[in-house]
Amino acid sequence: MAPLKIYSLLLCGCAWSAVWASPGDTVAQVTHLSGVLTARQADGNTKMLSVKSPVREGDVLTTENEAYARLKFIDHSEMVLRPNSVLKISEFTFREPDPKGDKVRLEMLKGGFRAVSGMVGKRSRESVSFSLPTATIGIRGTHLGALFCQNDCGGVPTPSGQTPANGLHLDVAAGGISVTPVTPPGAPPMQPAILNAGQFGFLPPTQNGIQPPMILVPPNQAPQVRMPASISQNTPAAGAAGRNSEPECVVQ
């Protein structure tokens, strides 16, 4: 994912007045959007989203070709979805005066994201998890990136110029993550691997029914995932819901 010159999410967005969520409640808002973002709701209805649209627990979000979407959750965590990504808001429970009730579970079914943890991640880090097809990620006060390639990462730049390998690419800009691979049926569970700030990892796909362990990747060999300026800046640009034609924004 992103190299050590990290692409910041710039967390000084608008404050939320809501401080809790129950099933079906609004748990996030679209703050920046470039391209088409849809939400399939728990009742089966699908709608297009725009800047300031609410996101509810149970929604399945999909970004179309060349679309980036940035979300801000009610605990002040933030997430950017890459093009051709699918994210399910499986569970998001946050009540500011009651840390014991915290629970955040996000399922990235396809594609990739960058995320910065909010209040739940700071006070109840064991209550936050990101599920992907091949691994579950736990956090420790984290800014992380994940890219899951399934013959669909041809547009992602790499230092070698080659398409990123199929599998799960990870990076940590701050804090740390634990990565627990999903093992094939009948296989013993694997111990979680740890990635700390400044580290990059790659979890290969299953090979002949065996899940290989995660590999540490040198920074100069990691895929480089950039965000357009309309997504990384804090004030959405006029017409940000249109084509993704802005120059890329890199925070050195």
Automatic annotation (TrEMBL):
Positions of the FecR protein domain: 59-144
Sequence segments annotated as region (Disordered): 227-252
InterPro entries to which the protein is assigned, alphabetical: FecR
UniProt keyword Transcription, yes or no: no
Residues of the signal peptide: 1-21
Keywords: Signal
Keyword Signal: yes
PANTHER family in the cross-refs: FECR PROTEIN DOMAIN-CONTAINING PROTEIN, LIPL45-RELATED LIPOPROTEIN-RELATED
Name of the protein: FecR protein domain-containing protein
